[in-house]
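Appendix B. Raw example, untouched.
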Amino acid sequence: MPAPASRLYFNNPVGRVMEHPEGYAHVIYEAGPRQLHHLQAFLTHTGQLLRLRGWHKLLADQRQLTPYTPDESQWIVDFWLSVEQRGTRTIYGAVLLPHDVFARLSVSQVVADTTASVLTYRLFDAEDAAQQWLRQLR
């Protein structure tokens, strides 16, 4: 019997937010430039899915991600990753690293700028390894 498929929860020009049948949000970034309000909606819906399902894990496929703009980086640090926004429960994120070296640098800078984050993450080059890490978390 085939495994159940992920279900689309939200989609916009930034990417897709999927409900993974193993109990985590699977966010898939698309290539290309973004508008800040699209990124804000994308990440806000990701947070809503986590709260709605009572989940605390996500797989962020950033392989096609282009570098964050300064405004995007600032919003992610100040709002999306803040303890005040996410609550006190830790979110575990398996992050598939961007192919673009400048995007990798912008992701690293966002992480470095985050002081009070509820996100605990690990970086991966392979999706199988990322999924295996999420499976072992309870």
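End of appendix B.
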